């Protein structure tokens, strides 16, 4: 679009746009910078830059809380649930999009109802269910709830995508002697890769950052994920600000690194999931 | 808005001896989803109709839990107090978060240099876990050693420095503004997608008819952005009425100070998991509150989706 804009309007737009960059990024920069400061430095002047650079505080962090465990638990839970969501949702979407039995419409609607369910409101029955299944204090409780709550949006996105694919490819593969599973694995999964990317990103961010379910399901420190692990840190080392900032930085780091590697996919994936 | 024209529906009729196998495809998703999403929500509805002793289900009491929630002290006062905060949450986010987000989206739409960098920068806070956001800002807003008060003092605005989270007059607003900081990048992307989906010919035609500046924005661009604005309004509403994590991280499950930051979801958490109101956990009351909250969120999002569909058809 080419609208005439006066130079002064343009200048104001630039000023505001970059001012807001400062608002968005400064707290994050402050978090990282503060982690390299001693407590004395932080309390004397919260805004100053660190006097020296050392990773000692991160070594200390690793010693006082089982951060390695938290990180490993977060990875296990997020990766497993994202893989399960992607595979199961793709299979369900394939069925809904490609076959027209009397019940496929109802089935699709049943999945879509989940888009409107705020699952956290079912936390009491979920807690009792996990208790009965013996899954409290088990990473499986988290994997199952993330998988279940990620399925509706993923089935929705993938079904929409399947419907845009021509059916001839599958028929050709079938004529070549592939059975349904082979068609699905060898022909369709590679074709729906862009939509799978969206599904993976949306669900990975919400599983990685979730704090509510581990708060309820996991009591044992060694089984906590990073977000609830931070509560342990803030509960026990309230006055050691240097350590607290280091904990926050380390919690934020993995996601920021992944984001910087694939920022376009992240932003497109998240908004695609939202507006479709 | 990726509103790809819906192609003609193509389906397959399975043939051969093993055709029943296709019915296995939806099963894993269906079972997990039914067991861990549908069943718990359905149970929450039935739980609200029973009396509970701790985590033991008692006798059927009909709507007694709902009556208690709305007519017995302190439950009714706490409900309306929290409800009011959710409404403020929604309104402030609509004005501040979505207002700033739309403005920034509009700037980028008008082709500012470095728009790729701007988008990444605005989006960055959204990557943090809400609990990290809450704890980080708790440190920044600390009255003694926090960065914000120090910054204000350095700018000569020392009299503005406040114990933001300790003062019942500012605590809720502080939390909501932190939420805005977290959410602006995402809202901006939604609005930008909306702006970029406006056909250029329409803008050009309006310009030839003499629309410019503010009138172009209000009469042409905003109405054409309605789908994105509606979506963002629904998201903001749902998020505002489910607000829990940030309050919990920054002010604890009591909505300190003096319940000035309490929200319905935090109140729900107290009823269901910690002994609030003096007694034991109150699963019956908590479930009743969950049902009310569910009804609020689901009805508003269903209504706005319905209105949006209707408008889309008219276009």
TrEMBL record, chain A:
GO terms for cellular component: plasma membrane. Its main location: membrane. InterPro entries: MetI-like, MetI-like_sf. It is a multi-pass membrane protein. Residues 71-262 form the ABC transmembrane type-1 domain. GO terms for biological process: transmembrane transport. Pfam families: BPD_transp_1. It is found in: Cell membrane. Keywords: Cell membrane, Membrane, Transmembrane, Transmembrane helix, Transport. The chain crosses the membrane at residues 12-33, 70-94, 106-128, 140-162, 183-205, 241-262. The keyword Transport applies. Belongs to the binding-protein-dependent transport system permease family. This is Sugar ABC transporter permease. It comes from Brevibacillus panacihumi W25.
TrEMBL record, chain B:
Its main location: membrane. One of its GO terms (biological process) is transmembrane transport. It is a multi-pass membrane protein. Keywords: Cell membrane, Membrane, Transmembrane, Transmembrane helix, Transport. GO terms for cellular component: plasma membrane. It is found in: Cell membrane. The keyword Nucleotide-binding does not apply. Residues 83-304 form the ABC transmembrane type-1 domain. The chain crosses the membrane at residues 20-42, 87-108, 120-140, 171-195, 216-241, 281-307. PANTHER family: BLL4140 PROTEIN, DIACETYLCHITOBIOSE UPTAKE SYSTEM PERMEASE PROTEIN DASB. Belongs to the binding-protein-dependent transport system permease family. This is ABC transporter permease. It comes from Brevibacillus panacihumi W25. The lineage of its organism: Bacteria, Bacillati, Bacillota, Bacilli, Bacillales.
């Amino acid at each position: 679009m080419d609208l005439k804009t006066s130079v002064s309007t343009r200048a104001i737009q630039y000023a505001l746009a970059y001012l807001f960059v400062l608002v968005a990024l400064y707290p994050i920069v402050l978090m990282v910078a503060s982690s390299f400061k001693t407590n004395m430095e932080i309390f004397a002047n919260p805004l100053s830059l660190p006097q020296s650079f050392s990773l000692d505080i991160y070594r200390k962090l690793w010693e006082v809380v089982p951060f390695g465990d938290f990180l490993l638990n977060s990875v296990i839970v997020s990766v497993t649930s994202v893989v399960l969501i992607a595979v199961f949702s793709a299979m369900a979407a394939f069925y809904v999009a490609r076959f027209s039995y009397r019940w496929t419409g109802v089935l699709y609607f049943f999945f879509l109802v989940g888009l409107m369910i705020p699952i956290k409101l079912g936390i009491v029955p979920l807690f009792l269910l996990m208790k009965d299944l013996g899954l409290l204090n088990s990473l499986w409780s988290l994997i199952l709830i993330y998988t279940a709550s990620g399925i509706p949006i993923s089935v929705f996105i993938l079904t929409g995508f399947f419907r845009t694919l021509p059916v001839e490819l599958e028929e050709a593969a079938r004529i070549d002697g592939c059975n349904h599973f082979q068609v699905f694995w060898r022909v369709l999964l590679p074709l729906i890769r862009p939509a799978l990317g969206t599904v993976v990103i949306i669900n990975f961010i919400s599983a990685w950052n979730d704090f509510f379910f581990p708060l309820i399901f996991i009591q044992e420190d060694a089984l906590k994920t990073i977000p609830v692990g931070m509560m342990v840190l803030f509960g026990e080392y309230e006055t050691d600000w240097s350590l607290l900032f280091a904990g926050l930085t380390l919690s934020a780091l993995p996601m920021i690194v992944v984001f910087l590697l694939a920022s376009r996919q992240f932003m497109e994936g998240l908004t695609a999931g939202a507006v479709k | 808005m990726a509103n790809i024209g819906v192609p003609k529906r193509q389906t397959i009729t399975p043939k051969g001896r093993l055709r029943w196998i296709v019915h296995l495809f939806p099963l894993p998703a269906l079972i997990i989803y039914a067991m861990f999403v549908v069943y718990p929500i359905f149970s929450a509805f039935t739980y609200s109709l029973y009396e509970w002793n701790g985590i033991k289900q008692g006798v059927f009491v009909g709507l007694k839990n709902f009556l208690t929630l709305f007519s017995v002290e302190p439950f009714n006062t706490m409900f309306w107090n929290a409800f009011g905060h959710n409404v403020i949450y929604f309104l402030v986010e609509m004005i501040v978060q979505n207002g700033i987000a739309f403005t920034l989206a509009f700037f980028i739409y008008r082709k500012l240099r470095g728009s790729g960098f701007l988008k990444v920068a605005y989006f960055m806070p959204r990557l943090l876990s809400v609990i990290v956001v809450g704890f980080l800002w708790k440190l920044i807003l600390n009255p003694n050693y926090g960065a914000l008060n120090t910054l204000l003092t350095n700018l000569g605005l020392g009299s503005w420095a406040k114990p933001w989270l300790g003062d019942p007059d500012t605590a809720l607003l502080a939390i909501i503004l932190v939420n805005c900081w977290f959410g602006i990048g995402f809202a901006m992307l939604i609005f930008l997608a909306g702006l970029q989906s406006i056909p250029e010919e329409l803008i050009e035609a309006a310009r030839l008819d003499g629309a410019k500046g503010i009138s172009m924005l209000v009469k042409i661009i905003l109405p054409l952005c309605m789908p994105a604005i509606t979506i963002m309004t629904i998201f903001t509403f749902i998020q505002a009425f489910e607000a829990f994590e940030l309050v919990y991280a920054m002010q604890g499950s009591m909505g300190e100070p003096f319940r000035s930051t309490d929200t319905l979801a935090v109140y729900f958490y107290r009823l269901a998991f910690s002994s609030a109101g003096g007694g034991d956990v109150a699963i019956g009351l908590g479930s009743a509150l969950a049902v009310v909250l569910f009804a609020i969120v689901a009805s508003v999002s269903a209504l706005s989706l319905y209105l949006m569909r209707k408008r889309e058809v008219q276009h």
